[in-house]
Specification:
Layout (H helix, E strand, L loop, with lengths): L7 E4 L7 E4 H17 L8 E5 L4 H12 L3 E4 L6 H11 L3 E5 L3 H4 L11 E5 L13 E4 H6 L15 E6 L9 E5 H11 L12 E4 L6 H4 L1 H8 L2 E4 L6 H11 L3 E4 L1 H13 L9 E4 L6 H9 L3 E7 L6 E4 L8 H8 L3 E2 L4 E6 L14 E7 L27 E9 L4 E7 L4 E3 L2 E3 L1 H9 L4 E11 L3 E10 L7 H9 L10 E4 L13 H9 L6 E2 L2
Parallel strand pairs: 1-11, 3-4, 3-5, 4-8, 5-6, 6-7, 10-11, 10-12, 12-13, 13-14, 24-25
Antiparallel strand pairs: 1-2, 8-9, 14-15, 16-20, 17-18, 18-19, 19-20, 21-22, 23-24, 25-26
Helix pairs in contact: 1-2, 6-8, 9-10
The structure holds adenosine-5'-diphosphate.
Organism: Streptomyces avidinii
GO molecular function: ligase activity
Keywords: Ligase
């Protein structure tokens, strides 16, 4: 904040000018925030302090104030269903919540179910009246900062102390808390900044679309402050049109988001062309990036780097930079993998019988990883002990990722599926991701999700749910014929349905459990081809 004091966090406001704040100002304000939290709100060491915020400068201030004072930054995923948010806040026993005014309509109805919350600190625009009559003390963020000193007696912290935590989205059972130590955040940030990862400098600007509540925005807020990388923050303007506008106007050199965001942006700039070429590299991860999407961005002059990770891995697990000295054509097969493991991430593949599999690009097994920024347990709650469910953690510290794939001899990971999404047909596995990628390569297909459905003869068979682009004329047989060009005949889906949109999870990934349920409930209009 001193050395890179002039670097900036730019927050989109939806008005003529975005809001700009230098790293030096953010440092000063983070100091004031820490003082206010301690002196005025009584925040203690190791206490979790929640944020319910968009990506913006104030959220960055919380990112530095809370961990540096010895408390634990607890980012809340604003897209979770209310009952999960209630579970999470109660589990962590959050006493203080920092919230953007625009999110009060979300927070206020939850507060009667959050007995531990005593203080709500509101920043930015938004009607405060939603909090009237509720049993909490309401503070204005700016007033707290104005009434606080610009020096703070920062404590000496143990590097293994908790700095932040984040809950997984709880696709099965209750959400699980993952705690990140100062040490793991620091080491992960150094890895993010390596040339073979995101490799950015203070001459760069990164557009942080991935939410700050989604695994610490993939480590970007920490990595940027380490090397002075400017940040462009979209706040609540996450729709394709404003994203396209902010890229054209602010010219970020890098951006990070899940494939869904990039699909939406692609449709937008196809309809209303914009110049995106300032972006030298965009990082796409969180779910498999369809090769067709990567190709489309290549054509727009934007290079995609595919990455894999999980909440439990902080999240950087792999990035797909091809080896040096290859032609564009030779690079392609490397670029569409999930990528290579960096130093700091140890990996192994485990077969169905628990045997370790070779890295030969063919043997498929469950990926297990361990390392400095990889969790080895889940948070037990304010009152509980950390816990290690056997299906997630092995006794010797390996994280069982639940992802199935192969690893090449030179360490490139290709995921074929999530263990729970693999289609088991007549004793053979069909990769739902392969079928989706093949479908999304069709020029008239906007999105496609493939799930396993029960089948009397084969046990399970694929069901293809497809979203067509506007004006498309292709029918199910046409799509099956298209697939048959690249997919083995026995893998071709018989069951097809056109849908309006693929259901998405709280962080924008395909929500296949919703599709499976819709199918089970008979809510989909499915055609079965012969
Ligand atoms: P959740 O489990 O709630 O989706 P995470 O964000 O932690 O939350 O998701 C991690 C999972 O996302 C991984 O285990 C993997 O299945 C999937 N994933 C992440 N990146 C990729 C990728 N590049 N390709 C395929 N799957 C991915």
């Amino acid at each position: 904040m001193t050395i890179h004091g002039k670097s900036q966090v730019t927050t989109w406001t939806g008005e003529a000018e975005p809001h700009r704040r230098s790293f030096a100002e953010i440092g000063n304000r983070a100091t004031r925030l820490a003082g206010a939290l301690r002196e005025q709100l009584g925040v203690q060491q190791s206490e979790a302090v929640a944020t319910l915020m968009w990506n913006n400068a104030e959220h960055v201030e919380a990112y530095f104030a809370i961990p540096s004072m010895g408390a634990v930054l607890h980012t809340l995923n604003l897209r979770l269903p209310p009952e999960q948010l209630v579970f999470i806040v109660n589990h962590a026993a959050d006493r203080v919540v920092l919230v953007n005014g625009t999110l009060l309509p979300l927070l206020a109805p939850l507060l009667p179910h959050l007995p531990t919350v005593e203080h709500v600190v509101v920043s930015g625009i938004g009607d405060r009246s939603a909090l009237d009559g509720l049993n909490v003390q309401v503070h204005e963020y700016e007033e707290l900062l104005a009434g606080s000193s610009d020096s703070f007696d920062w404590p000496e912290l143990d590097e293994r102390q908790a700095a932040a935590m984040c809950y997984t989205s709880g696709t099965t059972g209750d959400p699980k808390g993952v705690v990140f130590s100062h040490r793991s955040v620091y080491l992960h940030s150094m890895q993010v900044n390596m040339a073979e990862s995101m490799g950015l400098t203070d001459r760069d600007t990164t557009l942080v679309v991935v939410p700050q509540f989604h695994v610490n925005a993939w480590g970007l807020p920490h990595a940027t402050f380490m090397t002075g990388i400017n940040m462009l923050m979209p706040d609540r303007f996450l729709q394709p049109a404003p994203l396209a506008e902010m890229i054209e106007r602010e010219k970020p050199t890098h951006a990070a988001a899940v494939p869904t965001i990039w699909q939406g942006l692609l449709a937008e700039v196809t309809a209303n062309p914009r110049d995106l070429t300032s972006m030298k590299q965009v990082t796409i991860g969180g779910s498999a990036c369809p090769p067709a999407l990567m190709e489309a961005y290549d054509k727009l002059g934007v290079r995609v780097c595919h990455a894999w990770g999980m909440t439990e891995t902080s999240p950087l697990g792999t990035m797909a930079h091809p080896p040096a000295g290859l032609s564009a054509e030779e690079e392609w097969p490397y670029r569409i993998t999930q990528g290579r493991f960096p130093a700091g991430v140890e990996a192994r593949l485990v077969g169905p019988n628990g045997d370790l599999l070779p890295w030969d690009g063919e043997s498929a097994g469950e990926l297990e990883v361990r390392g400095n920024w990889i969790a080895s347990s889940y948070y037990g709650g304010a009152a509980g002990e950390p816990f290690r469910p056997e299906d997630k953690f092995s006794a010797d510290g390996w994280l069982k990722t639940g992802d199935v794939g192969v690893i090449s001899a030179d360490g490139f990971l290709t995921l074929t599926d999530r263990a729970k999404d693999v289609i088991k047909s007549g004793g053979e596995w069909i990769s739902s991701v392969d079928l989706e990628n093949a479908l999304m390569a069709h020029p008239e297909v906007a999105e496609a999700a493939v799930v396993a459905v029960p089948d009397d003869k084969w046990g399970e068979r694929p069901l293809a749910t497809v979203v067509l682009k506007e004006g498309a004329t292709v029918n199910y047989t046409g799509l099956r014929d298209f697939l048959a060009r690249t997919v083995a005949k026995w893998q071709l889906p018989e069951r097809w349905t056109f849908i309006e949109a693929v259901p998405k999870t709280s962080v924008g990934k395909f929500d296949k459990k919703v599709i499976r349920k819709q199918y089970a409930d008979g809510a989909l209009d499915v055609t079965k081809l012969d």
